[in-house]
Please model this.
Amino acid sequence: EVYEAGWDTNGYAEGSHTVSARATDTEPVTTVADPVVVIVDNVDVPPDVVIVFPLYGSTVSGVETVRISASDHEDADGTLMVEWNVDGGDWQETTYNDITTYYEASWDTTAASNGPHTFNAQAIDTALNTSSDANNITVENNVPPTADFTYVTTDLTADFTDASTDDDGTVE
Model:
């Protein structure tokens, strides 16, 4: 086949133009595509935060180590402010542990009443973006009973009255 000058072997106009149609005369009809400009904002996204311990649905007692996993695409490990609370109380600080790579804190669960609670965590990055996580947990501290008694003596007879207490019920 013989091609007219200005046409490639596929029948399209030569050059950097995009062919939208071919006219029946000798002049090709072409269009020039406008350049597409994509503007990507440098948006600082909120950090990721996940409560590692206490686990969702777990029962805790005594002194526990709180562990929270938190990371951010724009901030280095250990630079986030990560806090926790129970049932919406005051936020408690954590410390970043380079070895475990968790944000950690010590929690004396005896400060909370026995029963169900909501354990909350939040992470705040340097741009003040905040993310949070929450777990439903149960606190169950078996407080040892308090042994106590009163007594009255008459001559050689002593009468004792049990005054012991136990948060779980009666002392036997």
In short: The first strand starts at residue 18 and ends at 21. The chain is about 0% helix and 40% strand.
